[in-house]
Amino acid sequence: MENDLLSVLSKGSNKFSKGQRIIAKYILNNYDKAAFMTAGRLGKIVGVSESTVVRFAAELGYDGYPSMRKALQEMIRNRLTSVQRIEVAKSMIDDNDIVRSIIGSDIQNLQATLEILEQESFNKFVDSIIEAKNIYIVGMRTSTSLSSFLGLYLNLLRSNVSVIHDTAASEVFEQIIRIGEGDLFIAISFPRYSSHTVDAMEFAKKMGAMTAAITDGPASPLNGIADVCLHAKSDMVSFLDSLVAPMSLINAIIIAVGIKNKENLSKTFERLETIWSENKVYEQTEHGGTT
Question: Domain of 44?
């Protein structure tokens, strides 16, 4: 089966029954909405039975309708514009209880991330951070906050960590011009994927550096480039992306690196506490602690 479901639907229209052609036509014209509909909802909109929709998915080679819907979601996530995301969100979010809808979705993303986590890949990712001579971290667009957070704490745990800033493509390459063997390049990207991040990782790999990625799944363009790849679910929420699961995964990476360097970790934070206290970095609270 071709990876692009839209191509399959377009090329196979002559072989479909009348009901299936109706379904295919609707999906082709409204893929951004159909990708998030139940079989019953899709059937009702196009005027066929739910069972017809389910049988159509099976005929296309999927285990069931949910599998076809998931394939369509994965395929289109990077195609959706912000306007299309807002339209999709209207049918996904309960306007009367937005906070529960969003937090509930984040909880599902965390659970899904835990289920797909490969411990061997996680361990390899952590070891590569510890063993690298120099580390370069790139995360652009919505992933900028993730790269900055990871860079902040890795700089506390070890030396030679650089966070590459989201600037023009040529300036990104200038910031990693000296990357080479023994170095680690970490790329973070989620739909809609940054082309600059992909290009930078390809350059780093060409220069002989080890490449590691944090992204959303096998469909990510980083997945085929990285030597080691960790996946975290990041479903879209209206015009923004949920970064709760990716941030949780990054928390785990930082903690794992710290635990493997317990002695250095203690010395570093003892030194930091002295510096923070001398320079009054944190406000003193009434009970004597800091905030």
Answer: 5-76
